[in-house]
Amino acid sequence: MMSGPYRILLALLVVFAMSEAKFDIKVSLLPTSWIPIGSEQMPAESRIVNGDNANRGTAPYIVSLQAVVANKSYHICGGSIISPTRILTAAHCLPYWGRFPHQVGVGFRSLEVGANAPGAAVIQVMAANVHENYEREGVKGFPNDVAILELATPVPQSQWVQVIEMAKSDDGSFDEDECFLHGWGRLSAGGESPTILQNATFTGVTYDECRTLYSTGNIQVRWSHFCGYNYPQSACNGDSGGPLVCRGKLVGVVSWGLSNCSGCFPGVYSRVAAFEWWIRRFV
Question: I need a labelling partner for 253 at 20 to 30 A (CA). Which of 69, 131, 205, 229 fits?
């Protein structure tokens, strides 16, 4: 069970909820963050919302989803390799699909070095499959925020590039597990973006706890969500679509959270096991 300041905060919020008082909670998707590939944005010692620089090979399943505009590629979101030719990401990461070509960088640690790193590669996205019931409505909890990308060629699997196993419905609960997030998202809300892949560690939060917290602001947390918390760490813009991994399995896809990326409330992820059958249509 969770303890300490978070339990105290939860208790206070329950009191407010029972008294019908409502907080002005502002939540948002963690929108795309256009980071030029091959240009230095921040020095290597930078940290993402109190995370740490990742060692190369720490997350061989992560991809940098990129849009190509005027022959320049930009990191916009993360994603996870779930088969040699399929990437799982967030539906809200694809507002520019159809307007600009998209590609994924695999085997990346540094966006500055990019595909010049040993084992790294850039692969074109051939098709994008957005969940047909995805809704971009905050009060509803941005339901069904998942998408599958189809690659033009298979990823070059190696120690740097690997497929990750997805959590399934029969894996049981990951509540209160230690989970790991990786991404190139902003270091703070509206702040700078790193070039080096970042790590953050979170604890799984029960559905009831997460739902209670966000209900104080009339924000809906659904059964198809998974929540993770470890104040003051937080996902932020540019982490969207990236992997939350617990017990070595892909449990969540970064979806939404507090607009200020403060980490005061749990981050909310699309729960991979909830979309098991939908994903199988494309893999």
Answer: 69
Q: Is residue 266 part of a domain?
A: yes
The enclosing H or E element of 53 equals strand 52-53
**Within a domain: 223:** yes
75, 145, 224, 270: the active-site residue? 145
Q: Give pLDDT tens digits for 216-247.
A: 888 899 999 999 988 877 778 778 999 999 99
Q: Quick check: is 145 catalytic? A: yes
Copy the structure tokens of residue 174.
């990951």
Answer yes or no: 92 catalytic: yes
From the candidates 224, 240, 255, 270, give the one annotated as an active-site residue.
240
Counting Cα atoms < 13 Å in the Cβ hemisphere of 27 gives: 26
pTM for this model (two decimals)? 0.85
Q: H helices then E strands: how many in the chain?
A: 3, 15
Query: Given the structure tokens 């049981």, which residue do they identify?
Result: 172
Q: Which of 33, 75, 92, 175 is an active site residue?
A: 92
The number of folded domains in the chain is 1
Q: Is residue 215 part of a domain?
A: yes
Check if 169 is active-site: no
* CATH number for the domain that contains residue 178: 2.40.10.10
pLDDT of 139-180, one tens digit each? 888 999 999 999 999 999 999 999 999 999 999 899 999 999
